[in-house]
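Dear H.,

Thanks for agreeing to be a second pair of eyes. The structure we're designing against is below in token form, covering all 294 positions.
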């Protein structure tokens, strides 16, 4: 199905917000160990959802749906966070970003029978556009870190598929609240295990970054993400992974006064064109091509 104007707006806002987190994330990491910072971030996001859940008297999921929400807190948040932190010690962050841009292709390949051929081709071309725009370097020494990053990509991508299939009847705010609360608890346990002895310095910049990550890029963004998964195919929603690096490129050029290379501009245009093709693709298009071919 093609996105409605409301879905396009939510998708664009999500890409811009998540693509703008790099400044806040780097600022927070300078003062607070990453796992502790993530734990506090998701705890605040969960608390932000509570008034909405209570005021609107939203129903909580039960049995199977509840189990999947709790599972997603691990496979969508905690496990990828741990894997990415480990991978970034062995590969550059830009390489990790490119690997995450492969998520739409991975998700599309999970169910190729349901994905229009044009969309499947466009996801491959879009990934190529990201590679061209970011120009990552890679060596055999980085193979282990890249493999770990790909596990994070697979875990996050499979989580998107599960969320669309199992949580379509659960309010996105409820999903966000439960997922964030559970993820905060698990991240805190992980921080106690892996960040023992590391100190925190809650500076004004760190607090401001945390507020942005929780109140803007946290609760509302995750609620919008789960809402989109309820209305659009998972491979389409995960193309938000393409928007994020493009936004980061534009913001880096603007704030740091750095010029954009030809490769950055060309890669961004290829990626944006591919994104439009993916989002507009329909299964009926394949049938029409088949009929014309006959």
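And this is the sequence the design step returned. I haven't edited it by hand at all.
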């Amino acid at each position: 199905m093609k996105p409605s104007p409301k879905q396009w707006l939510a998708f664009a806002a999500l890409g811009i917000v998540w693509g703008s987190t790099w400044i806040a994330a780097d600022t927070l990491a300078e003062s607070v160990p990453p796992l502790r910072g993530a734990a506090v971030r998701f705890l605040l996001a969960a608390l932000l959802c509570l008034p909405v859940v209570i005021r609107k008297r939203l129903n909580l999921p039960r049995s199977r749906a509840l189990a999947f929400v709790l599972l997603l807190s691990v496979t969508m948040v905690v496990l990828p966070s741990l894997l990415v932190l480990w991978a970034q010690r062995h590969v550059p962050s830009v390489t990790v970003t490119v690997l995450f841009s492969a998520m739409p292709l991975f998700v599309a390949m999970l169910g190729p029978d349901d994905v229009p051929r044009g969309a499947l081709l466009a996801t491959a071309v879009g990934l190529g556009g990201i590679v061209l725009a970011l120009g990552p370097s890679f060596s055999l020494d980085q193979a282990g870190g890249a493999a770990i990053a790909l596990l994070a990509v697979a875990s996050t991508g499979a989580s998107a598929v599960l969320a669309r299939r199992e949580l379509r009847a659960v309010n996105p705010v409820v999903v966000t609240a439960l997922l964030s609360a559970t993820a905060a608890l698990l991240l805190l346990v992980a921080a106690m295990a892996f960040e023992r002895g590391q100190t925190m310095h809650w500076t004004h910049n760190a607090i401001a970054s945390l507020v942005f990550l929780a109140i803007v890029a946290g609760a509302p963004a995750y609620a919008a993400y789960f809402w989109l998964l309820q209305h659009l195919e998972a491979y389409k929603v995960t193309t938000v992974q393409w928007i994020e690096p493009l936004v980061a490129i534009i913001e880096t050029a603007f704030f740091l006064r750095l010029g954009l290379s030809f490769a950055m501009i060309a890669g961004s245009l290829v990626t944006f064109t591919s994104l439009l093709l993916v989002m507009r693709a329909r299964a009926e298009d394949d049938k029409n091509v088949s009929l014309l071919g006959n």
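Two observations from my side: The chain is about 80% helix and 0% strand. Residues 87 and 148 are 6 Å apart (CA to CA).

Warmly,
E.
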